[in-house]
Amino acid sequence: MSLETVIVLDFGAQYSQLIARRVRELGVYCEILPYDTPWSRLVELAPSALILSGGPESTLDPSSPDLDPQILQSGLPILGICYGMQLVARHLGAQLVKLEHREYGPAMLALVGGASPFLAGVPDDSRVWMSHGDSVIRLPAGFTTLASTPRCQVAAMGDAARRIFGVQFHPEVAHTTFGRQILRNFLREIAGLQAQWKMESFVERAVAQIREQVGGAGVICALSGGVDSAVAATLVARAIGEQLTCIFVDHGLLRAGEAQGVVEAFRDQLHLNLVVVDAQARFLSKLAGIDDPERKRIVIGHEFIAVFEEEAAKIAGVGYLVQGTLYPDVIESKTPQSKAGHKIKSHHNVGGLPEQMEFALIEPLRLLFKDEVRVLGRVLGLPDHIVERQPFPGPGLAVRIIGDITQERIEVVRAADAIVRQEIERARLDPKPWQYFAVLTPVRSVGVMGDGRTYGNLVAVRAITSEDGMTADWARLPHELLETISTRIVNEVPGVNRVAYDITSKPPSTVEWE
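The structure assignment produced for this chain is given below.
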């Protein structure tokens, strides 16, 4: 039996990856493709249903992203979300208008026109999340209005005969109370799909694809020690065995004790072919005098590749590099696969790569979110102390030092970060923050220590709660815990006399400061 697949066509929404995640949570395999993917390519993938994402543009703008008319003639079940709904409506003859004031935020949903399987289980006055500047005011032929809100005449619409539905709000975000139910209704009741997809299915497909791609070539893996590269390495090792060599580059920007832990875990416990490269002096030299965060990421990405190329030259027949790139990396870096999106920042393993490399990339996790990677790690048999490691950026402490990078500043942030991690882990919080660390700022301030004047560094502490890293809220740590962290950092880390706590969510900020 072939695997049922839902394709999300991405029109540039920051939420496209959440749509895919929600669909997978409901047991249906899902992939995201650019909005202008040729129809011939979609036919090859044999999708069971299509979802058209939201987007930042206006469908009333003639130059805005459009959809292939063959999509609406395909007979496939289709769900349009926000911009996607407006595109469907416009193509099928509806009338749309630009709102005088954009609608952004919560709204209360009112069901219209009797029971519909599309909205089964969704009560009147449930909350939905709006983010749109255009609205449908006259429906296409064959459609009926299924729901409205005080400011949106057509909040949901559908043509049951053609199995085409649309919602003006965002069911994929947690702010929409019954969004999961609406997506479930579309998948089960409208498209008739079953919950077939499990992580074991992903492993089978990924192993087969890796074997087909690699053939008899040698492969090296960029092993950072984080959960992403660990899972990627283990998955590729399952596919090709001794053809894989893992290369761990100690760039001197790791957390306290991390380099030793990586070697022990992967060489001694997982028994992978592991080459360890001490490149601390090399990276520090390359980063000297660079304070621009984008430049830091680019330099680190290029230097990583240079080290890999040198090590690969020592191994016969290497043609591929494995990286633990995830969906959030791809989306935020605005690669060609998400070309309608707005770039947030470059990731060292996406936007930081040189245009010309001596080997091709294998990125087996690029369609997965962080929580899915952890599930995959357990399926592959990785130990908990690896699977449960909190996210750590590839550029390491370089993006947790604001400004110039020196050995002295690295030691300051490393020591402060160790204290933050020790105290939060010792507190056994429930729920435990998703990520937590220290940041060395360029700010210096006057203090008093030992009856004398000091002029020391300001360290910021960051702790967030999140499901997938795409959105996050600051963690409400107990005041007593924050006091302990602050006291220890000021007393134990030379040159620091002030500690601040970051209480900014994502958006508007990102998780990392750089």
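Interim note for the steering committee: Confidence is low (pLDDT under 50) at residues 334-354. The domain at 401-501 is CATH 3.30.300.10 (GMP Synthetase; Chain A, domain 3).
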